[in-house]
Each structure stands twice: as structure tokens, then as C-alpha cells.
From TrEMBL:
GO cellular component, one term: plasma membrane
Domain ABC transporter, first and last residues per copy: 5-256
Listed GO biological process terms: peptide transport; transmembrane transport
Location in or out of the cell: Cell inner membrane
Entry keywords, A to Z: ATP-binding, Nucleotide-binding, Transport
Pfam families reported for this sequence: ABC_tran, oligo_HPY
Lineage: superkingdom: Bacteria
Gene Ontology molecular function terms on file: ATP binding; ATP hydrolysis activity
Family: Belongs to the ABC transporter superfamily.
CDD domains on file: ABC_NikE_OppD_transporters (cd03257)
Cited function: Involved in beta-(1-->2)glucan export. Transmembrane domains (TMD) form a pore in the inner membrane and the ATP-binding domain (NBD) is responsible for energy generation.
Protein name: Peptide/nickel transport system ATP-binding protein
Membrane topology term: Peripheral membrane protein
Organism: Bradyrhizobium erythrophlei
Amino acid sequence: NAPLLQVNDLKKHFPIRGNFFGRSTSRVYAVDGVSFEIARSETLSLVGESGCGKSTVGRAILRLFDITAGQVVLDGQRIDDLSPDRLRRIRRRVQVVFQDPFSSLNPRLRVRDILAEPIRNFGLAKSATELESKVANLMDTVRLPRDALGRRPHEFSGGQRQRICIARALAAEPDLIVCDEAVSALDVSVKAQIINLLQDLQREFGLALLFISHDLAIVEHMTHRVAVMYLGKIVEMAPRYQIFASPRHPYTKALLSAVPVPDPTVRRTPIILKGDVPSPINPPSGCRFHTRCPYVFDRCRTEEPELRQSAEGQWAACHLDVLPDTPASAT
Ligand code: SF4
Ligand code: MG
């Protein structure tokens, strides 16, 4: 059973225009060799601090720009090098929900027209009656009242607007939805509602989700697997349970130590990272995390660790096989 999506050694470098006779003098290594798969009906969460390249990965899959190197394969077909007309059909199958539902919805359009647009564009209704019934059904699907179809985006709350964005994504009848910080701007209770909705839709339609988030806590109860990114690379990837119960990479461990645990008897050793994320224009030598890693040792500064599989399905890019609870540098 081939995966729905395969990303192989994806690279996206952005040239920066310097003053050197107008030629590019350097590049931003936004995504620098990322590989993963997503199965049908699976949720993979891509997690990391802002600037780690996770949104760039999402945009590359959506084909919002050309990639620098690597492959994006959807259902056995390469989509990174498709011509624009063949890309159109692929576009239907991969949809997106962004963070800010207000700016991604046309304020002048009524919800009816917002939802009808993709159905028409992709030729998914054979008649006006079918179009109308599909639009009405989408409202049921995202738990919005049908009589709101005549309203415009500003007449809805933030959570309702995000439901409209989800309905619009579903209108294209996709196989995969990229959710880029899709709940980050919402209140806590609304976040939970939208996540529950996404999970229901996944079960109902067999949808795959690429859930991009800076917040590990958000994905803890909804994802199947997690990939943690740091400075353009995946540093750890594992099923949800393993990531949360036994992180292998010091960076994952640090991110997790900041996630509040509801059970007050359980304590995670806090790991404070030194400094800021280094610039992706000039990433550190060896292990890119070495400038902030509490476990750093000599080899880390010169030799880049490979992503290696340890426990079943758990991959980590670190020279250490076992992380002591307390880093040597902290004692
Ligand atoms: Fe830390 Fe070294 Fe592992 Fe990198 S390779 S995460 S610097 S211990
Ligand atoms: Mg982002």
C-alpha cells in the first residue's frame, strides 16, 4: 500500500539579493533535505519554532512555488515538476487551511459563493441543483447552520470562519489538507472544537492531514505521528505516543518540557534552551542544534548526525543514543 504523499529530500533555498552588482550573494536554507510520508487517513504533525521551515514544506506540497531540489509524490505521481494544466487536477486533491481565516476569506463574498467556487472550478457538480445541495451539505459537515449561507465572513466568529475555511477546503473533495497553524489564532475552547471537527472529518472522509504547528501541546491528542523540525531539517519523527513518552532528540525534549502536564504529580524536567534559533542563512556546522543543545559534545560541532531509526518507527538525528535525564552541562 503506497503512501498518499511522499516527500523525498525536499530542499527550498531562497536567494537573497545582495548589493554585489545586484547578484544574489547568499541563500536562506529554509528547507534543507526533508523526507517523510503521509498515509491515507493519517495525521502527521510538523512541529517547530517559527522560521524552522515547516510552513515552507506545506507550501511546497501545495505547489505554491517551485522547489530547489527533491521530490513531492502524490499517489505515486511526481507533482513537483508538473506543467500548470496538469497541476490543476492535482491542486484539487491537496487543499489548505491557513491560520487567519479572516484574511483568507474574500470579505465581499457570501458563504454560498465562497463554497460554490471550488465546486465550480473543479467541475464537481453536474447541475445547479447539485451545486446547491453540495454547498448546503458542506454547511452540515462543518456544523454551521444552512441559513447562514447568505452571510458574509465578517458576520461570523473566528471559530465559525475557520469552519468556513474547512468547508471550502472540503468542497474540492481533497485527499489531503494542509493545516498551517489552523487553530493557533483561536481561543482555547474553540481550538478544541476545531480539532475535534478535523478528527471527525478525517474519519468520515478518510482525509490525510498535514498539521503544521509551533505548539506541541495542540497536537498531543489528535495526531498519529509527529515530525519535529529545526532550522530546515527534521530532527525527530515518531508515532505520537513515542514522541511524548520518550523523546529521542534533545530539541524535542526541550519543546516537550515546556508543554504543561495536566497531572500535577507528573513532572517533566524543564530544559531551558540558550539563545535564539540561529539564522538559516548561515546554519551552524555539524549538528545545527549544537549552539543551543544542553547535551552538546565535541563531535556535534563538526559532524552532522544522520536521521537514524531507533525504536520501532522512531527516527532521530542525534549522535547520542540515550539522553540522560539531566544534561552534563547542567550539572
Ligand atoms: Fe545535541 Fe549533539 Fe545530539 Fe546535536 S548531535 S542534538 S548537539 S547531542
Ligand atoms: Mg509558519
